[in-house]
Amino acid sequence: MKRWPLTGPRLMKRWPLTGPGLTYLTVLMVVPLGLVLSYAFLRRGRFGGVVYQPTIENLTRLADPLYADVVLHSTWTAALTTFLALLFGYPTAYVIAGLPRRRQTIALIAVVLPFWTSFLIRVYAWIVLLSGPGWLNKALRAVGLGPVDVLYTDAAVVTGLLYAYLPLMILPLYASLVRLDPQVREAAANLGAGPWTTFRTVTLPLTLPGVLTGCLFVFVPSFGNFVVPELLGGGRSVMVGNLIRDQFLKARDWPFGSALALALLAVLMVLLLAQAWAARRYATR
Amino acid sequence: MRGLRAVGAVAAGLALFLVTGCGEEGSRSNGPDALDPKADITKQSLTVSIWDGYSPEDLPARVKDDLGVPVKIAHHATNEEIMAKLTAGGAGGDSDSGIDVAFVSGQYAQALNEAGLLEPIHADLIPNLKNLYPEAQKLAYDKGNTFSVPYTWGTTGICYRTDLVKQPPTSWNDLLNPPPALKKKVTMMTTERWLALPALKALGHSVNTTSDQELDAARTLLLKAKKNLLAYDDTTFGDRLTKGESAMAEAWDGWCPTSDPKIEFTVPKEGSDLWVDTMVVLKSSKNKEAAHALINYILDPEIHSWAAENILYKVPNKAAMEQLDPKVLEANAPLRMTPAELLKGESIVDVGEAATKYTRLSTEVAAGS
C-alpha cells in the first residue's frame, strides 16, 4: 500500500473533503482518549476528579486479584457469547445466502430489524420474558416443565448479550458466504466430496475472514457491556464495563476508572490487530 | 475598574475581596456581614442543581412571580455527578461551576464545605429557618446548620409484603438471612454505604466505621446474604414488591410504596441511618442574596410540604408537616415517624479517604460468589 503524501497540492485538494471528518474525529475521539490516558497516571481527588500528582498506582492496582477476576469473568462471558453467536449465526447466514435475491433482502431486514428500537427497551423485554412469573416459565409450565430461575443469573446475561449482538455475527458471515462462488462447491461435489467434507474443506476455510470479523464484532461489545449484566444479571455479577462505570459514578475514582478503560482498550487493540493480521495473512495465501 | 470591582464584590463575597486586595476595612473573617440584606435580588438570577422530580415543576415560575428572581433548574442524577461538576476546577474553592444553589446529601455538603466551596448560611437572611424542627439543628454532618439547610430527611429500613412475609421482619438479620420460603425473594441496595449498612448494623457497628476488621466481618456477612438475594437494586425495588417479584427489600423510607395496603415499612431494632438531603449555597455564586431568598422561599410551609405530599419524603419543617393532608399521612406510615424517632438513626458522614474501603467492599461483594 502506498503512503498518502502528507504535503503538497494533493493534500490541499483533499483538505476540504477530509477536514470536517478529521476535525470531528480529533476533537471527539483523540482529545477524550488523551484525557483518559493522562488521568490513568494521576491521583484520585477526594471529591472526584483528579489531583495532578503523577503515579503508576492505578496501573499496578490492575494486577489485584479482585480486578483480575472481574476481567477473567468478563472474558469468559464474552467468549461464551461469541461461541454461541457463531453456533447460531453460521447456519442462519448460510441459509440466507442460499435464498433467492429478493428473499435475501427480506431476511437481512429481519435480522437488523431489532436495531430499530432502543436497546434498553429490548433488554427490559427480556426481563419480562425471563422473570419468575414471566413468559418463559408460562411456556415451560404448558409443556409440564419448570419453573426455572433464569433471570439474574449469568445465563440471563449471556442470553441478553447473545440476543443483542447476534446480528453482528450474521451480517459479516452472510457477506463472505454470499461472495462464495457456487461453482467452487459444485467442483468439490463433482470431485466426490460429501456435503460435510465440502463444508469442512471448502466453505468454512473460504469464509474464515467473515468468521473472524463476526467473532470480533460480538466479542468486543460483549466484553465491555454494562447494561446487560446490571439489568439481566441483577447486579449480582460484575463485568469490566460495570467496574469502569462504578469508578466514575459511584466511587469517585476517575484515575482508576481511566486505568481500567485503558486496559480494556489494550486488550481489544490486541484482538483487532490479531484479526487484521490473520485476515491479511489469509488474503495473501 | 476598581470601583466596579467593589460593587461586584458585594455579591461575589469575601473571597474575591481578599484576592483583589480591596482591604480598606482590613482583613475580615468569613462572617455573615459579607452579604447585603438590602441588595436588590431582582437584579440577580439563580441556577439551581437538583435531582429530577425533587422540587415542584412550577418552582421557577413561582419564584419569578413572588421574588422576581429568574431561576434556571439543572438536574443531576446522583451526588457523585454534582460533586464532579462542583469540584471540576480543583477542590480549591476557586472553581465557578455557574451553579448558585445545589441540593446534595448531608455527607456531601460536609465534604464540599471541607473543600472550601460553600458559603456559610446567613441565618438572618432566612427567617423561615424558624419553621424547622429543633432536631434539624442537631445533624451530625453540620451541627447548627452553618453551611447547609436540610430539605428532606429519612432513614433506611426494610420494606416488605405483608402477604408474602409470614413473620414481620424486626432485625437486619431477617433481611440478610431470610427464611427458606423467601430465598431469591429479597433485594438489597448496591450504593456503597447502603450496601454495607444492613451488615454493619446487624453486627452492631457504626455505619461510618473505617475499621478494616469491622468491614471484613461485614463483607463475610454480605457474601453469605448474596446467596439468598434476587438482585441488587437501588431504583426499582418498589416496583418489584408491588409486582410480587420480591417479598422484602432494603429500602429508603420514601421509596417504599406504602400506599399499597399490602406493603409495610419497618426500621430494624439494631437501628439504621439518618440521611438528609440539603440545600447549599456555593461560595462562587455571584447571587448569594437571591440564593438565600430562594432557600427562605422553599422553607415556606406551602412550598416545603410539596416534597412530603408528592415524593413522600419527610421534611424537617414542623410547620410544613403540620399542614400535611391527613389522608397522605394516614396512607403512608413512614411519613408519621417523629423527628425524635428519626434522630435515633446514625447520620451518615463523609469518611474521607476511607471511602475507598467502601468502594472495595462493594466491588468484592458484587464480584464475589
Helix content range of the residues of chain B, please?
25-40%
Assign an overall shape of chain A: globular
Count the E strands of chain A: 2
Which chains have the largest interface?
Answer: A-B, 30 and 36 residues
State the separation between the terminal residues of chain B, measured CA to CA: 66 Å
Look up the CATH topology of the largest domain in chain B. D-Maltodextrin-Binding Protein, domain 2
How would you describe this protein?
The complex is a heterodimer of chains A (285) and B (369). Helix content of chain A is 74%, strand content 1%. By secondary structure, chain A is mostly helical. Chain A has a domain of 168 residues: Orthogonal Bundle (MetI-like fold). In chain A, strand 1 and strand 2 form a beta hairpin. Chain B is globular. In chain B, 36% of the residues lie in helices and 15% in strands. The N and C termini of chain B lie far apart (66 Å). In chain B, strand 1, helix 3 and strand 2 form a beta-alpha-beta unit. In chain B, the strands form two sheets. In chain B, strands 1, 2, 3, 4, 10 and 11 form a six-stranded mixed sheet that branches. Chain B has a five-stranded mixed sheet with strand order 7-6-8-5-9. In chain B, helix 7 crosses helix 8. Classes of the chains: A mainly alpha (285), B alpha/beta (369). Chain A: One of its GO terms (cellular component) is plasma membrane.
